[in-house]
Design brief:
alpha/beta; 17 helices; 8 strands; disordered C terminus; binds guanosine-5'-triphosphate; binds magnesium ion
């Protein structure tokens, strides 16, 4: 038994000793592992900074705030739409005559200056030819120019004119006579709402001229209503509405594609109900084709007049910069409706002031109002004397003539 016990104990010692050695050997292995596992732990740390990099992204969020004001900018526009009677626009600084003269600078530079040069060289045959060229270049029209120069030469002969100064004075007189003494007042109704229908080729300045006319009359204390019968483009009514805000006139409008005649009709009904002094009707300058445009214009006028009685003015807007081409386009409107007066726009932007004479001759309709720029005060009644004086204002000084100041 004792021997057996000794064997068992020995065996136990051997087994335990081997296991311990194994264990020790195993524990000796792991120390090699940490070097590989440790780096990943350290690699985590470099990732921390990127987390901090998120912070710099915060400012962009704050940059959104500056965008907020534009949203508020929309708000100021909203109230004026509903304001029926906004403030009247400020008074202009220049008198109408001063503005007229100032804005005709380009026409004066070309026509006035060249005529001064021509007459400055004396009344030779060459001078008469150059005068013709100059008038044609200013869009007076070939036929009108021939007749004008012919007439002027005859008068110079009859009156014994020999100097350039005298010839220039006579030219001014001939031009004034040519423009005549037509009634250029825009017709008003004795009682009730006056109606002016405004027509013309697209882009000539109908809507702008309506806005300027509206401003002039609201400034004089009148109640003005604008009817947006150009329903061809939604933007047209928006543009008229902006002029309503500027001028203090109320705008009657309908959706895009609505019947223009109905808008004109409603415009009058609304203006009359409010006892307004003046209704201005804006119309389209372009449709699918010219026939459709003229048919629509005729219908608008007919339906409007059924309610309002005859229009007090049917105004044709002509762009002075379009020259003879503009005049042939204008003829189509004259054929469609009875035009009572011309609004000649963009006289400020053209060297061709002679178009005024061509219109009078070729269309046989008096120019009643002229556009002299894009702003609200850039509209003036057409005064032939002031026009001729403005055309030759600097010339008068150049050749030392008495400057018969008109304003
Ligand atoms: N320099 C100058 N520009 C003008 C005058 N009248 C109008 N304009 C400009 O001409 C452009 C066309 O004017 P609108 O009033 O829109 O013309 P419209 O006849 O109503 O045009 P549609 O509605 O397209 O038929 C605008 O840029 C105006 O500012 C003027 O007398 N002088
Ligand atoms: Mg328009």
């Amino acid at each position: 038994m004792t021997e057996e016990l000794i064997v068992v104990v020995l065996a136990a010692v051997l087994v335990l000793g081997g296991g311990g050695a194994l264990l020790l050997r195993r524990r000796g292995g792991p120390p090699e592992a940490p070097p590989t596992e440790a780096p990943p732990v350290e690699e985590v740390e470099p990732e921390a900074p990127p987390v901090e990099e998120v912070e710099p992204e915060a400012p962009p969020v704050e940059e959104v705030e500056p965008e907020a004001p534009p949203v508020q900018e929309v708000e100021p526009e909203a109230p004026p739409v509903e304001e029926v009677e906004p403030e009247a626009p400020p008074e202009p600084d220049l008198t109408p005559a001063q503005r007229f003269r100032a804005r005709l600078g380009r026409a004066r530079e070309s026509l006035g200056t060249s005529v001064a040069a021509i007459f400055g060289r004396g009344l030779t045959e060459e001078a008469w030819e150059e005068l013709e060229e100059s008038l044609i270049a200013a869009d007076v029209g070939v036929e009108a120019t021939m007749e004008l120069v012919e007439g002027l030469r005859e008068r110079c002969q009859q009156e014994g004119v020999r100097t350039g100064e005298e010839a220039l004075a006579l030219l001014k007189e001939v031009l004034r006579l040519e423009l005549g003494t037509a009634d250029r007042e825009l017709a008003r109704r004795q009682e009730g709402t006056t109606v002016w229908l405004v027509t013309g080729v697209n882009g000539t300045g109908k809507t702008t001229s309506i806005g300027k006319l509206a401003a002039r009359h609201t400034r004089e204390g009148e109640r003005v209503v604008l009817a947006a019968a150009d329903t061809f483009r939604a933007a047209a009514a928006d543009q008229l509405e902006r002029w309503g805000q500027t001028s203090g006139a109320r705008v009657v409008r309908a959706g895009e594609g609505a019947d223009p005649a109905s808008v004109a009709f409603d415009g009058y009904a609304s203006a009359a109900a409010a006892d307004a002094d003046l209704l201005l009707v804006d119309t389209a300058g372009r449709l699918q084709n010219k026939t459709a445009l003229m048919d629509e214009l005729r219908k608008t006028k007919r339906v409007l007049e059924r309610e309002a009685g005859p229009c007090d003015e049917v105004l044709l807007v002509v762009d002075a910069t379009t020259g003879q081409n503009g005049l042939s386009q204008a003829q189509a409107f004259l054929d469609a409706v009875d035009v009572s007066g011309v609004v000649l726009t963009k006289l400020d932007g053209t060297a061709r002031g002679g178009i005024v004479i061509a219109i009078q001759r070729q269309l046989g309709i008096p120019v009643k109002v002229v556009g002299l720029g894009e702003s609200v005060d850039d509209l003036a009644p057409f005064d032939p004397d002031a026009f001729v004086d403005a055309l030759f204002a600097e010339v008068a000084q150049d050749v030392d003539l008495e400057d018969d100041e008109t304003g």
